[in-house]
Amino acid sequence: MESHTTVPSNHEAETEPTEFEKNQKRYKDLIATFPHTKGWRPKGSLIEYHGCWFVQPLLEGCLYAQEFFQARPIDFLICSSAKTGTTWLKALTFAIVNRTCFDDSSNPLLKRNPHELVPFIENEFAFFPQVDVIKDKGNTLFSTHIPHGLLPKSIANSGCKMVYIWRDPKDTFISMWTFFQKQKSDFGPLNSLEESFDMFCRGTSVYGPYLDHVLGYWKAYQENPNQILFLKYEKMRADPLPYVKRLAQFMGYGFTAEEEKKGVVEKVANLCSFETLKNLEVNEGEKIREDIPSVHWPNSAYFRKGMVGDWHNYLTPEMAARIDGLMHEKFKGSGLLEHDIDD
User: Fold this and answer.
1) Per the record, which residues fall in region Disordered (predicted)?
2) I need a labelling partner for 257 at 20 to 30 A (CA). Which of 163, 263, 293, 323 fits?
């Protein structure tokens, strides 16, 4: 398993090395001293950094973001573990912030994948500083899969707000495993579902352990609910509108009474719905984003089913019981599962 994108090793001789390239050897040397273990492919490895598992390029990107990402109070972060609703939240936050800038036919979401519009601080920010959204100082939206405890210090110091989304671990695992099946990889075939599931349960997955990732952001939310909005994918899927309104309010872009009357909330929700995005030409077939040099996934890979409970089609009752038991054990006494019921 590698990152969402291939890291260009060296630019052509005539181009100035990027800030990341100037520091890359230092990161590689440091990472060589960290614990490595077998990944989800025979030739791929996972690397442990402060209790979290990374693939090499994304760990280099994380170290770079920790050192160089300068968050501003006006910035807003979309935080998540992989395959928990990131693409949807990127679309929603972009549509909320820019709803007065575009009419129905000119919204960039109609022509570009949400990942092009909201960059990862451990990916585009590090590896592709030339893309429009990184160069645009007017952009305030960024995203990350980095665990809360490893976020760049500038994020806490700036006081910028963030939203975190989590998802039932059973569906998270299935979404991740099927996503990696669509990856163009030189690291050999993906492990079987059973072997990958066992590794996921033991915590060895990209940005894992997954349950620790969720718990870290949950504790941060409890300590500072004004800075972090904590969302559950399943609840948003069941009834998106109140959450779209809450998200906009939290971001400082609340809908006016006039907008609500005109159906703007519904418009935003519909534009960003799984069904709308999946069926756009830009997100169909083998189309890939064109703003970066090399891509491992077609845009369509980000829109598989988006449904709740698809794990029933893949996991045995015993597998489901194992991961449910781990979740209840991990979250016991934290108030997280109660929040899920009451919210």
Assistant:
1) 1-21
2) 163
Question: Cα 228 to chain center, whole Å?
Answer: 16
> Which residue from 135, 140, 123 is spatially nearest to 75, judged by alpha carbons?
140
79: left (phi > 0), else alpha (psi -120 to 50), else beta? beta
SS3 282: helix
Both tokens assigned to 144: 């990350």
pLDDT of residue 279: 65
CA 309 to mean position of chain CA atoms: 20
CA atoms in the 13 A half-sphere facing the CB of 37 = 14
Can you give the length of the chain in residues? Answer: 343
Catalytic, out of 4, 145, 148, 213: 145
Collapsed DSSP state (helix, strand, coil) of residue 260: helix
Q: Is 219 left (phi over 0), alpha (psi -120 to 50) or beta?
A: alpha
Active site residue 145: yes
Q: Whole-angstrom Cα distance, residue 179 to residue 84?
A: 12
Distances (CA, A) of 142 to 89, 170, 178: 11, 27, 25
Do 67 and 27 form a contact (C-beta atoms < 8 A)? no
- CA dist 300 and 36 (Å) reads 31
Q: Nearest to residue 69, comparing CAs of 23, 6, 2?
A: 23
Tokens 């820019």 sit at which residue?
98
The letter for the amino acid at 229 is L
- Asked if residue 7 has pLDDT above 50, the reply is no
pLDDT tens string 91-124: 999 999 999 888 878 888 888 888 889 999 999 9
